[in-house]
Every structure is written in structure tokens, then in C-alpha cells.
């Protein structure tokens, strides 16, 4: 008897055409596998059988293409329609649609029935059924048809441990269709760390959409953020922002500045040293949660004496005083005319060369202050040197007069010539180029409103030449030649005069001029020297 039932069941299952549809889709059931309608067709009927009911339910009655009547009064009333080939269309496939639908065709000759069994596949779906904080969360996963359900947390298999993770699986038989599905309940002790965790269930090779627990927990940690985080300097802008964990996080915060602010963020613009101190913040509704930060505002004041433009006379003294008031030990550096000085300038006896732009730079951790003064040392001009520069082998002589002084002195020579001025290291040098016709004493006069000075130099008219060791030696002079010629003429004249005198008086003696003899002597000596 049992085997017979079993056989019938197996036979029926084997004999019935099965149509597999997906949950939510449109089920399309063809009549007689979509074969063309027979001749003499009177009507087509779609019907189905409910369980526990003997009479089939009429779904649709079709007389012809233009006379289609929906007979269903149950859940199929609004869901059924007919395709041009008389296939039955059922919208939104549900698990309850897993039943036998029969297409019946009546022609003048016969009646044909084509039963089709519909199976609806439903991917596993998860529903969160319970929500509470600090207790176990439950998820239900359903799979149809029945399948082994596996739970995953972020793609990691969850293994039941009977405490934190409890999995209860049951196989349910649909009361009407008699088909089974599986449901699995996951009881999970969710905590803060599961806030963003995705839970899925898998049945055969299908995976459910991920579900996250809605986990709430009170704030346990509050943080006061200070931006920028580095050392603060006077003039900076600093933003204080309060945040806390907790789900949901607190909606309002209190920031304790010097005053109490109900803000989650506050910006102090152009901070001053008076803003230094400790700042707190806490959620508006729980002042026992607190975070604090200490702000230290770096400051730096400097005062430089003297400053601006300073005029002093040579020989006087100048005291330089740089005072700093800073939140730490600052570094000080000095420059004179942009060149680094090794120490703070101090002047006991001012020299012209002390004139210049003095700048100091005081720094403390990125906070920089600068100050400067311009020192102008004034005094009567001083001639540093008057030199002769002989052009070797030439007749030009360059005379230079190097002068220091402020205000800038005027320079004048006692003779005429080509002048050229050069400046270097605060000194003025005027060069005079001339061709002396004779031995000269040339004087350089310098002068400003504070005083004047003069210095002379003897300039010979001789021409110099380098000897073997490279030293310049006087070899000849235009005037020397002239002098020799002059001496000869002079000697001739003297000889004539002497002769006249001798012939006239024939008494006493005439002394030759000292000048001529000494000149000749010296020349002889030098020629001997040159030979040596
Ligand atoms: C459709 O067929 C039924 C039954 O034969 C009939 O009563 C009805 O009048 C027909 N309707 C139309 C619009 O032809
Ligand atoms: C579920 O898995 C067990 C063992 O892994 C297996 O015996 C059983 O047939 C499976 N059930 C289904 C419905 O796949
Ligand atoms: C959870 O899923 C969402 C959307 O599917 C994704 O953006 C998120 O990164 C997932 N979280 C984890 C921890 O995998
Ligand atoms: C799941 O398995 C069935 C049969 O085993 C297969 O037809 C289907 O393509 C598979 N689906 C996926 C998403 O792997
Ligand atoms: C404030 O937070 C602390 C620490 O999370 C907590 O113990 C306390 O109960 C909270 N108080 C209120 C009034 O919420
Ligand atoms: C600080 O904020 C003020 C006003 O918003 C702005 O004028 C100033 O440039 C800011 N200073 C800095 C250093 O960003
Ligand atoms: C330095 O600055 C602080 C803060 O402004 C001030 O209290 C102090 O009097 C100043 N000291 C001097 C020597 O200027
Ligand atoms: C003398 O001065 C002239 C003109 O400035 C210059 O060309 C020449 O080189 C100078 N001679 C010497 C020896 O310095
Ligand atoms: C320099 O030359 C000017 C004219 O060119 C003349 O008047 C003056 O006397 C000359 N000075 C000397 C010292 O030779
Ligand atoms: C000119 O001076 C040179 C030496 O500087 C001397 O040797 C020469 O004799 C002098 N000439 C005259 C004419 O005085
Ligand atoms: C070059 O002249 C210098 C100075 O007059 C003298 O001391 C030196 O001996 C001379 N050398 C030669 C090689 O003539």
C-alpha cells in the first residue's frame, strides 16, 4: 500500500511538467508547450487546484482572442492575464504559486488538459526581527526550496557556540503546497565592533543581501581636536572641535573656553598669548565625559634701540640694545648690509666703515620678528692714501687719492689731468692721469662741510722700465734728455763766458754750477749700478 502511494507520487512527479520561476518574477505557463490552438476550438480555460479542496478553481475563461474573462475571485484576480498564445501570465511570483495549473482546451471533438507544476525559487533572504541594545540580535534567513543555510559575518562563516552565536534551523512545510523551505534564526551578541558588520546567509550557491545591525551604545569617549596641531603662534587661527563615539553620537557638545560655548566646534581667530590655557569639552548631556587640551600660544615681542636712521660722528660710541619678551628662549641673528654678523654690533669708536644697514632677526619656533637701523657715521674726510702708479714703458702716470668721509667729500688735485672716480668699501678713490713735463709735487685736497685734508706726492717725469728682476727702474726722462742738452748748452755758454772772462780779465776762477755736476754724478752712479 505504501509502496503504491510512493509509486504514484513518484509517477506523478515524473509525469508532470515542472516550470521553475523566480520569486517576484512573472510566471509564464504555456498551454500545451505553446502548440498552436487546434481547429474547432470552442474555449480555453485556465484552472488550478487548491489544497484541501476537490473542485478546481477557475482562473480564466477564453472564448476567443477578444472575449477573455477573468473568473478568479481570490489572490489571482488582479495578478493573472493571458499572452497572445494563450499562455497564462502570473505577476509577482510568490511561494504560494507553487501548485499545479491546468490549461483545458475544448474543441468540437475532444477536451485536452495540460497540467504544469510551478516551482518558485526564492533566494535566501534575511530579516532582522529583533532590535535592542546590549542584548542579542536575531536575524531570520529563509531559503526556498529547503537548503542548508550558512551564516556569514563580513564573509567569515559564523560558527554556533551556543553562547554568543546561536543558530536555530528549522524546515517548514508549506501548508498548502506541501513544499518545504528552511529558515534559520541567528541569535548574535552584537557589540560596538559590529556597528558596520555585514551579515549574510547563504543557501546552496545563493547569498542574501547584507544586513547590518542597528547597534546603539552611549558615548564612552569624547575627544577635543585642536587644528592646527602644531605649536600655535600669536596671530594664528585655531579651531577646537569636539567629538565623541557612541551610536548615535551626542548631538550637542559644550566647549569650555574662558566662557562656555554650546557648539561642537569653535574657531579662535588671531590668537593672542592670553588665549593660552586649558580647554575642555564634553557632550551637552553628560558633563562627566570630558576631554581637555592645553593651548600654548607662542609670543615674541622685541624692541630695538636705536632704530630707524642714526647719524653719528666718527670716534663717538653707539650702544645697541635689543630687548625681547618671548614665551621661550629666542634665537637672535644680526646682519650688516645683508651679510651675517657673528655678534650683536657694539660701537666704542665709530669708524666710517661702521656705516650700513643693521638688521636683527629674532625667532622662536617659527615666530619671527625683525627690526633694523641704518647707521651713518659722519666726519671730516680722511685721506687714506695718495699713490703714484707708473705705466711701465709709458709716459702716463696715474695718481690716486683714496678718501673716506661722510657726507661724501669733494676731491681736487693741484694739477690738471684726466680724472676717474671709483667707490669701494665706503671709500672713494679718484685717479688722475697725467704726463708730467717735469718733476712735480702734486697735492690732493679733500673736503666736506665737517672738515678738509690735503696730502702731497712727488711725481718724477722719468720713464720707468722693468729690469731683470721685474722691479721698475728709471731709465730715462724727457726732461733728463733736455737737461743733458741744457747742460751741454750751459757748458758751452759757460765756456764762451769763461773764455770772454778769461780773455777779458785773465784773473780768478769760475766755479761750475753745483746742479750740473751733482746731476751728472748721480747719472753716472746709476749707470754703474745698472751695469752691476
Ligand atoms: C463572451 O462570451 C460569453 C459566453 O459565451 C457571452 O455571454 C458574452 O456575451 C461574450 N462577450 C462578448 C463581448 O462577446
Ligand atoms: C545539508 O548538509 C548535510 C550535511 O552537510 C547534508 O546531509 C544534507 O543533505 C544537506 N541538506 C540539504 C537540503 O542540502
Ligand atoms: C557592508 O556592506 C556595505 C554595502 O554593501 C559596504 O559598503 C560596506 O563596506 C560593508 N562593510 C564591511 C565591513 O564589509
Ligand atoms: C547555482 O547553482 C545552479 C545549479 O547548481 C546553477 O544553475 C546556477 O547558475 C548557480 N548560480 C550561481 C549564481 O552560481
Ligand atoms: C555619562 O557617561 C559615563 C561614561 O560613559 C556614564 O557612566 C554615565 O552614566 C553617563 N551619564 C549620563 C547622565 O548619561
Ligand atoms: C584667520 O582668520 C581671519 C578671519 O577669518 C583671516 O582674516 C586671517 O587671514 C586668518 N589667518 C590665518 C593665518 O589663516
Ligand atoms: C612680557 O610679556 C608679558 C605678557 O604680555 C607681560 O606680562 C610682561 O610684562 C612682559 N615683560 C616685559 C619685560 O615686557
Ligand atoms: C692709468 O689710468 C688709465 C685711465 O684710467 C688706465 O687706462 C691705465 O691702465 C692706468 N695705468 C695704471 C698703470 O694703472
Ligand atoms: C687747469 O686748466 C685750466 C683750464 O683748462 C686753467 O685755467 C688752470 O689754470 C689749470 N690749472 C693748473 C694748475 O694748471
Ligand atoms: C726728477 O726726479 C727723479 C727721481 O724721482 C730724479 O732722478 C731726477 O733727477 C729729477 N729730475 C729733475 C730735473 O730734477
Ligand atoms: C733692479 O732694480 C732694483 C732697484 O733699483 C735693484 O735693487 C736690483 O738689483 C735690479 N736688478 C737688476 C737685475 O738689475
UniProtKB/TrEMBL annotation:
Biased composition (Basic and acidic residues): 518-532
One of the protein's GO biological processes: cell-cell adhesion
Composition bias, Polar residues: 507-516
Limits of the Ig-like domain: 84-212, 219-296, 380-460
Transmembrane segments: 480-501
Pfam families named among the record's database cross-references: C2-set_2, Ig_2, Ig_3
Localization in the cell: Membrane
Annotated membrane topology: Single-pass type I membrane protein
GO molecular function: cell adhesion molecule binding
PROSITE patterns: IG_LIKE
InterPro entries: CD80_C2-set (IPR013162), Cell_adhesion_signaling (IPR051275), Ig-like_dom (IPR007110), Ig-like_dom_sf (IPR036179), Ig-like_fold (IPR013783), Ig_sub (IPR003599), Ig_sub2 (IPR003598)
Any one GO cellular component localisation term in the record: cell-cell junction
Signal peptide (residue range): 1-15
Superkingdom of source: Eukaryota
UniProtKB keywords: Disulfide bond, Glycoprotein, Immunoglobulin domain, Membrane, Signal, Transmembrane, Transmembrane helix
Region span, Disordered: 507-532
The protein, known as: Ig-like domain-containing protein
Gene: LOC114775775
Amino acid at each position: 500500500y505504501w509502496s503504491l502511494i510512493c509509486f504514484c507520487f513518484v509517477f506523478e512527479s515524473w509525469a508532470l511538467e515542472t516550470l521553475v520561476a523566480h520569486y517576484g518574477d512573472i510566471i509564464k505557463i504555456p498551454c500545451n508547450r505553446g502548440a498552436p490552438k487546434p481547429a474547432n476550438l470552442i474555449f480555453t480555460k485556465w484552472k488550478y487546484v487548491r489544497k484541501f479542496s476537490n473542485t478546481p478553481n477557475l482562473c480564466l475563461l477564453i472564448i476567443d482572442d477578444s472575449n477573455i474573462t477573468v473568473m478568479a475571485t481570490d489572490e489571482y484576480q488582479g495578478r493573472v492575464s493571458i499572452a497572445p498564445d494563450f499562455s497564462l501570465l502570473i505577476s509577482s511570483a510568490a511561494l504560494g504559486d507553487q501548485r499545479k495549473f491546468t490549461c483545458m482546451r475544448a474543441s468540437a471533438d475532444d477536451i485536452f488538459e495540460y497540467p504544469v507544476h510551478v516551482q518558485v525559487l526564492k533566494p535566501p533572504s534575511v530579516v532582522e526581527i529583533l532590535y535592542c541594545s546590549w542584548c542579542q540580535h536575531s536575524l531570520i534567513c529563509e531559503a526556498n526550496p529547503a537548503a542548508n543555510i550558512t551564516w556569514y559575518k563580513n564573509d567569515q562563516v559564523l560558527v554556533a557556540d551556543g553562547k554568543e552565536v546561536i543558530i536555530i534551523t528549522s524546515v517548514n512545510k508549506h501548508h498548502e503546497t506541501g513544499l518545504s523551505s528552511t529558515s534559520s534564526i541567528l541569535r548574535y551578541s552584537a557589540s560596538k565592533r559590529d556597528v558596520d558588520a555585514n551579515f549574510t546567509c547563504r543557501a546552496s550557491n545563493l547569498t542574501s543581501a547584507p544586513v547590518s545591525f542597528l547597534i546603539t551604545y552611549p558615548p564612552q569617549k569624547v575627544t577635543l581636536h585642536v587644528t592646527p596641531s602644531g605649536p600655535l603662534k600669536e596671530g594664528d587661527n585655531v579651531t577646537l572641535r569636539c567629538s565623541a563615539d557612541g551610536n548615535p553620537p551626542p548631538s550637542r557638545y559644550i566647549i569650555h573656553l574662558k566662557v562656555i560655548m554650546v557648539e561642537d566646534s569653535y574657531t579662535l581667530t588671531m590668537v593672542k598669548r592670553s588665549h593660552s590655557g586649558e580647554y575642555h569639552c564634553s557632550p551637552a548631556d553628560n558633563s562627566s565625559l570630558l576631554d581637555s587640551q592645553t593651548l600654548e600660544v607662542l609670543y615674541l615681542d622685541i624692541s630695538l634701540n636705536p632704530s630707524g636712521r642714526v647719524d653719528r660722528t666718527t670716534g663717538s660710541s653707539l650702544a645697541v640694545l635689543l630687548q625681547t619678551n618671548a614665551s621661550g628662549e629666542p634665537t637672535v641673528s644680526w646682519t650688516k648690509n645683508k651679510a651675517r654678523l657673528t655678534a650683536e654690533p657694539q660701537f666704542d669708536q665709530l669708524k666710517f666703515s661702521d656705516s650700513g644697514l643693521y638688521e636683527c632677526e629674532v625667532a622662536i619656533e617659527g615666530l619671527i620678528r625683525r627690526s633694523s637701523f641704518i647707521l651713518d657715521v659722519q666726519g671730516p674726510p680722511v685721506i687714506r692714501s695718495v699713490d703714484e702708479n707708473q705705466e711701465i714703458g709709458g709716459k702716463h702716470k696715474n695718481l690716486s687719492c683714496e678718501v673716506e668721509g661722510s657726507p661724501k667729500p669733494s676731491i681736487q688735485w693741484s694739477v690738471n689731468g684726466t680724472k676717474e672716480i671709483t667707490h669701494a668699501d665706503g671709500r672713494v678713490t679718484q685717479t688722475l692721469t697725467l704726463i708730467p713735463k717735469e718733476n712735480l709735487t702734486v697735492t690732493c685736497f679733500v673736503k666736506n662741510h665737517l672738515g678738509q685734508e690735503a696730502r702731497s706726492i712727488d711725481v718724477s717725469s722719468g720713464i720707468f722700465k722693468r729690469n731683470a728682476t721685474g722691479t721698475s727702474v728709471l731709465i730715462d726722462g724727457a726732461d733728463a734728455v733736455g737737461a743733458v742738452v741744457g747742460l751741454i748748452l750751459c757748458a758751452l755758454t759757460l765756456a764762451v763766458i769763461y773764455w770772454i772772462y778769461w780773455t777779458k780779465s785773465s784773473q780768478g776762477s769760475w766755479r761750475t754750477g753745483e746742479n750740473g755736476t751733482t746731476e751728472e754724478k748721480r747719472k753716472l752712479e746709476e749707470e754703474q749700478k745698472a751695469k752691476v
